[in-house]
């Protein structure tokens, strides 16, 4: 790469970088530069080589070939700690926090400030609070991390990186669990860091955010470099085309016509975090649920399937009253829930793919002894149906890309043959190609006559998939939208507790 005239200096560079695992080369001679005071977006589908490149540049793995420079001088990082000492900091997509320690302890873990022989707890607490305030994060510095919402954990990771005085900062899907307001706070911080000369690598599948924040984009595909170009003028649609190598017209599938039959009817349901919520789901319908973080969408669905107690109200399935006290009971009634936390609650990342696949429907294969032949046949058929791509069924689930993990979770749930499928954040942290596939699967499930409920923080996703949209605010359902009323402005009015948008 040649730096255009007038551009700032290159802080960190990788040239001709290659990486092989055994006989398989996964990165094929990549050049990548990070300049002072810029946001450089790194784009590509899952499996494109982004993670491998970032791991090399941040000291996690060594390249098989190529060279790395820091401030123009050739260097190498023996470890992550070595890279961090040089000011190169990676914030992982998966949290790297000590759950049973406090926020302030996590921020300074291994780098505690001292006052003589003793820890300077007051100074660390004050600095932790300052960093959290910059991010507009309400978490207390003394709070235990395990009890924090997912979005606050992401902010703690970012605060930890800020405390290291990074010169180069890698942000891997930093907004995947953040609300719009939290994302806006993060972007203000990014602009401040840019002004201070920090080079930022922004990795995200939210292409509208890339268009908003990035100065340059680099696109990888199948371990090769596709392009590096100024971000100005490159639309999200063009970014998607560069990533997948094809046009993404018809991104959202055609919506099948639902039946008039009511499959699920919820009336005046109250539960922890939910206030007298009512809605109905028709057979063959995709029903969207929108709302800001904490609005009660997840709490409502978890109460319906028996994860939380129902305090009042009723749930009827095919006209019959139900009162699920456990997930086992809701599964027996053919009601299934795909959690938004696929890594923490949906899959056991240290176990193999077949084990994960069959766990939810284990009673089909263990009568009482496990029929491994039947289990493997079901795995092959189920994962083929969702186009799960893995080199071997013996791989651990944690080794899969985000998109393939989501496909595995979907295949696992579908093996129980549910008639009602609740999918919470169906495409969080997965690439545009996998998103299009997931959308197709959702439409196919509805076309089969199942009822599908989609909870999503991405309004284009809700609008593109749903026949109707229920909106929640402060634990209550504030609106039911259909047809022309399903638009971002109207949804946000209801989500903010303002009621319907007024005509101009």
Outline of the structure:
It is built from 17 helices and 22 strands. It has helices at residues 50-57, 80-85, 103-107, 121-134, 150-163, 180-195, 207-213, 236-244, 297-304, 327-332, 342-346, 353-359, 372-385, 402-414, 432-447, 459-465, 488-495; strands spanning 10-21, 24-35, 39-43, 65-70, 73-75, 88-91, 114-115, 118-119, 168-172, 199-203, 216-221, 224-230, 262-271, 274-282, 286-290, 312-317, 320-322, 335-338, 420-424, 451-455, 468-473, 476-482.
- Taken together, the total number of domains comes to 3
- The fraction of residues assigned to DSSP E strands is 25-35%
Going by CATH, the architecture of the largest domain would be: 3-Layer(aba) Sandwich
Number of strands: 22
CATH topology value of the largest domain = Rossmann fold
Give the mean pLDDT.
89
Structural class: alpha/beta
Distance between the termini: 50 Å
Q: How large is the radius of gyration?
A: 24 Å
Number of helices: 17
Sheet bearing the most strands, described? 6 strands, mixed
Low-confidence stretches: 1-6
Form type: globular
3D architecture notes:
The chain is built from 17 helices and 22 strands. By secondary structure, it is an alpha/beta fold. It has three domains: 241 residues, Rossmann fold, CATH 3.40.50.300; 160 residues, 3-Layer(aba) Sandwich (Rossmann fold); 72 residues, no CATH class. A six-stranded mixed beta sheet has the order 6-9-10-3-11-12, sandwiched between helices. A hairpin with a 2-residue loop joins strand 1 and strand 2. The protein is globular, with a radius of gyration of 24 Å. The protein starts with 9 loop residues before the first strand and ends in a 9-residue tail after the last helix.
């Amino acid at each position: 790469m040649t730096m255009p005239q007038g551009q700032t200096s290159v802080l960190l560079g990788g040239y001709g970088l290659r990486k092989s695992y055994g006989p398989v080369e996964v990165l094929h001679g990549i050049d990548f530069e990070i300049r002072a005071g810029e946001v450089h977006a790194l784009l590509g589908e899952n499996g494109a080589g982004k993670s491998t490149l970032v791991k090399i540049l941040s000291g996690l793995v060594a390249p098989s070939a190529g060279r790395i420079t820091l401030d123009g001088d050739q260097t190498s990082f023996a470890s992550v700690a070595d890279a961090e000492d040089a000011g190169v900091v990676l914030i992982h997509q998966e949290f790297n926090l000590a759950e049973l320690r406090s926020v302030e302890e996590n921020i300074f873990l291994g780098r505690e400030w001292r006052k003589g022989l003793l820890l300077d707890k007051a100074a660390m607490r004050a600095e932790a609070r300052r960093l959290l305030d910059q991010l507009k994060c309400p978490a207390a510095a003394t709070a235990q991390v395990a009890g924090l919402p997912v979005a606050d954990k992401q902010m703690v990771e970012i605060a930890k990186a800020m405390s290291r005085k990074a010169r180069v900062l890698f942000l891997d899907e930093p907004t995947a669990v953040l609300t719009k307001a939290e994302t806006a706070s993060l972007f203000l911080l990014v602009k401040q860091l840019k002004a201070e000369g920090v080079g930022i690598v922004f990795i995200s599948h939210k292409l509208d955010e890339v268009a908003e924040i990035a100065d340059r984009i680099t696109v990888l595909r199948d371990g090769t470099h596709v392009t590096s170009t100024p971000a100005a003028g490159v639309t999200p649609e063009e970014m998607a085309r560069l990533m997948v190598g094809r046009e993404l017209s018809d991104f959202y599938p055609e919506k099948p016509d639902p039946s008039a039959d009511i499959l699920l009817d919820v009336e005046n349901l109250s539960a922890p975090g939910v206030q007298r919520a009512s809605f109905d789901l028709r057979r063959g319908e995709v029903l969207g649920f929108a709302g800001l973080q904490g609005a009660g969408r997840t709490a409502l669905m978890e109460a319906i399937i028996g994860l939380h107690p129902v305090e009042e109200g009723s749930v009827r399935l095919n006209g019959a009253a139900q009162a699920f006290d456990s997930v086992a009971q809701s599964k027996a009634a053919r009601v299934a829930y795909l959690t938004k936390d696929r890594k923490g609650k949906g899959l056991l990342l240290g176990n193999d793919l077949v084990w994960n696949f069959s766990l939810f429907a284990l009673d089909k294969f263990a009568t009482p002894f496990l029929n491994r032949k039947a289990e493997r046949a079901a795995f092959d058929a189920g994962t083929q149906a969702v186009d799960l791509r893995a080199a071997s069924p013996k791989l651990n689930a944690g080794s899969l890309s985000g998109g393939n993990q989501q496909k595995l979770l979907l295949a696992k749930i579908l093996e129980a043959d549910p008639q009602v499928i609740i999918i919470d954040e169906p495409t969080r942290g997965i690439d545009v190609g996998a998103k299009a596939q997931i959308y197709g699967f959702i439409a196919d499930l509805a076309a089969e006559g199942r009822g599908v409920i989609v909870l999503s923080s991405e309004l284009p996703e809700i609008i593109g998939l749903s026949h109707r949209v229920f909106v929640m605010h402060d634990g209550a359902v504030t609106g039911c939208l259909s047809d022309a009323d399903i638009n971002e402005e109207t949804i946000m009015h209801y989500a903010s507790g303002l009621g319907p948008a007024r005509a101009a």
